[in-house]
Amino acid sequence: MPFDLQPILRGDLVGVRPLWSPDFDELYQVARDPLIWEQHPVRDRHRREVFARFFAESLACGGALVVTSTAGDIIGSSRFHGYDQRRSEVEIGWTFLARSYWGGRANGQLKALMLGHAFRFVERVVFLVGPENRRSQRALERVGAVRVGSRPDAAGHDSVLFEMRRPEGFTKSE
User: Fold this and answer.
1) Domain ranges (residues) in the chain
2) Rounded to an integer, what distance in angstroms lies between the CA atom of residue 85 and that of residue 8?
3) At the top level of CATH, which class does the domain 9-165 belong to?
């Protein structure tokens, strides 16, 4: 069974579904908050024209997801990227959530949903985070990711590399 880069996943706090072109305005309402991007390598992504480029890249990548509340409102975005069947690896990244969802269980549940899906297909999930993005690094540590080094991200920026391995006994899809 091939890896579905745009699954529909649901938890009791958040859900994910494929990103669609009509999602731009609602997702931009979340992304236009400059504090979301203050530790990010692209600090001006809150500007509409910068976010529009990011959104177009997200649509083109084939693995972008919107994160929704239980009411169905868009509260953020994330992405599966760089699936490598030979290395049994995929990246989870480009995640951002509305600040009203920071500090609670939403990010943990989002990662749990995405990891549960990914580990049906791969042995290893990687996360690449900007060296100055301490908030995202701490969030990954809270969900159990381990810092294992550094490597350039898809844009060539230096990044801190985190990983998670498939838990023992987790059933892989065939």
Assistant:
1) 9-165
2) 21
3) alpha beta
